Amino acid sequence: MTDPHPAVRTGDSSAVLDARYGRTGRSRKPLLIGVIGVLAVGALVWLLWVANLSANPPVASRLIGFQITSPTSATATIQVDRSKSVEAQCRLQAKAADFSIVGEITVTVTPDSPRQQSVEATLTTQRAATAVVLVGCTTADARRPN
What we know:
By secondary structure, the protein is of the alpha+beta class. It is 28% helix and 38% strand.
């Protein structure tokens, strides 16, 4: 009878299997952990970048008030705050009792005007409006209304 493999004598069956199937002792676990770590850091950097852009828009606006002045007109006052002197386009809509849009206007805030200002706009309506809604303001860099 032949002598068993030295690893069998010591009770190390994984060493026997490694010798039988030609496996080396190197594991891919460190490589996998490294790839996952790089992906996680990249995702975190992207998330922080998007959060910073969303938290600091170049223009912010809010509707201060509105008044229905006649069956064919409405006046609104908006507050426009810009972080830098850029041109802003602010869109307002007049809505009827059935929520349909009966009037719309885009107000341009010029770059040389004050960064924080109140702007009054008069909307011409097709029929009687019951409310004026501020859709938001955009700049050339930020096309999503704020």
